[in-house]
Please model this.
Amino acid sequence: MTPAAQRGVPDIGTDPLHTRLVLLLATALLTPPAMLAQVPPMRNALGLDSLTFTELQAVVGSQDSVRVRGTFGQVVIRTPTLTTDSLLAATDNAGMPGPRLGLSDVTRIQVRGGASGTGALVGAGVGFAGGLAAGLGLSASLCSDGGCSNEAGGAAVITLGSTAAGALIGALLGAPLKKWHTVYPTR
Model:
C-alpha cells in the first residue's frame, strides 16, 4: 500500500492515463500564444497571409489573362503580374506599360479554366438517370420469369457503370470549354 493510501488519500499519481491527461492539459494551458499558430504576417494589400498570397501570385502569373472586378468596374488584364500592392499588365509591343490596378481597389480576381468539373457533374447526372432507367427495364424484362436471384444488383451495376461513363464523357466534353473561375476572394 502506498503512503497516500495508508492516510486515506486516493493515490491518483500512479494512474498513467490520469497523469498523461494532466500533463496534456497543463501543456495546452501554459503554451504561450505566440507558439500556437505561426501564421506569416500580412504584407499585401489584399490582407492575405503570405502563403495564400504566394499561391495566388503563382496562379495569376501562370495565366494568359485575368478578369478583375473592383471599384473601377471590370477589366481583363493580359499577361498579368501580381505584386504586393498592385496587379500589372505586361508591356505592349511598343514598350508602353499596361494598366496598373491597386489591389486595395480589387474585389474579385478570376482566371480562365476548363469546364470539366461542370461537364462531369452533368454527364454523371445524365448517365445516372439513363442507367437507372435502362437497368430497371433490363432487369424487369430479363428476370420476369423468376430466373434471377439478384434483380436489384443488376440494375445497380448498370446504373453505376453508366454514371461513371457519363461523368467521364462529360469531363472530356467540358475540358475544352473555357469559363471564368474566381480565385480571389476564395470561398
Observations:
- The first helix runs from residue 3 to 6.
- The beta strands are 65-70, 73-78, 81-82, 86-88, 100-102, 106-114, 178-184.
- The mean pLDDT is 81.
